[in-house]
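Q: What residues go here?
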């Protein structure tokens, strides 16, 4: 396709993805009360009793905040619910440049990226209470935590999206390898930096320096990265084999 046709195709894919997010956001509107209560639970539980009993609450401090939070949480739910749609649109834009056999692999990676993204969201949800406990534990004695919802839910949504996207990155690496943008060896050369980045992300997502929680995050991300490298190297080997078969003998 020409550059103009590529741009038209990109626009069409973006419009479909945006429509999916909007429709998912309608569902998020109806789930708002439940989602607000569920994500606020770690804060309320922290002040519910025990040796560290103190006042904890999510308090609105502006007239328009409830509406703003309703829109943001609804969009987040729409983003998660519509993940099969927008992830497919990404791959559908890439797939015309792939060969028939490579397209089958791409469809498999589409099927893998959705559960991986949702698994990352689930992992972030399990880590949220630990994060709240750690940060609230840094409070000086006699102080309370009355938090504005825009600040708290920004932290929550960033944590969720970071974990979700981190789980999908290995799939993206395999995709760009199939497109011929990077080789498996190029990805392999950067393994030290990637492992270091995974370790830093895991440490940040496991407040308090808890080794068990850190490894709980780090191990699956590292294994996924290693699997992505293996698939990229295998794809490079197959591509090289095909190219050698296409070269006439004696040339």
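A:
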């Amino acid at each position: 396709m020409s550059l103009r046709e590529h741009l038209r195709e990109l626009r069409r894919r973006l419009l479909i993805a945006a429509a999916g997010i909007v429709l998912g956001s309608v569902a998020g509107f109806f789930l708002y009360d439940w989602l607000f209560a569920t994500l606020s639970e770690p804060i309320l539980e922290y002040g519910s009793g025990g040796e560290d009993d103190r006042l904890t609450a999510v308090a609105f401090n502006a007239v328009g905040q409830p509406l703003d939070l309703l829109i943001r949480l609804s969009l987040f739910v729409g983003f998660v619910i519509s993940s099969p749609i927008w992830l497919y649109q990404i791959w559908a834009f890439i797939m015309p440049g792939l060969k028939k056999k490579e397209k089958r692999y791409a469809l498999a990676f589409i099927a893998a990226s959705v559960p991986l993204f949702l698994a990352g969201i689930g992992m972030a949800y399990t880590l949220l209470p630990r994060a709240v406990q750690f940060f609230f534990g840094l409070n000086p004695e006699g102080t309370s935590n009355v938090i504005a919802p825009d600040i708290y839910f920004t932290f929550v949504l960033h944590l969720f999206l970071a974990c979700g996207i981190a789980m999908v990155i290995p799939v993206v690496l395999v995709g760009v390898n199939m497109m011929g943008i990077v080789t498996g060896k190029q990805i392999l050369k950067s393994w030290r930096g990637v492992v270091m980045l995974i370790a830093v992300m895991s440490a940040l997502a496991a407040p308090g320096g808890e080794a068990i929680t850190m490894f709980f995050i780090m191990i699956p991300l590292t294994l996924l990265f290693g699997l992505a490298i293996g698939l990229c190297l295998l794809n490079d080997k197959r591509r090289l084999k095909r190219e050698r078969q296409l070269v006439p003998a004696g040339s």
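A: Context that may help when evaluating the design: The beta strands are 56-58, 145-147. The longest strand covers residues 56-58.
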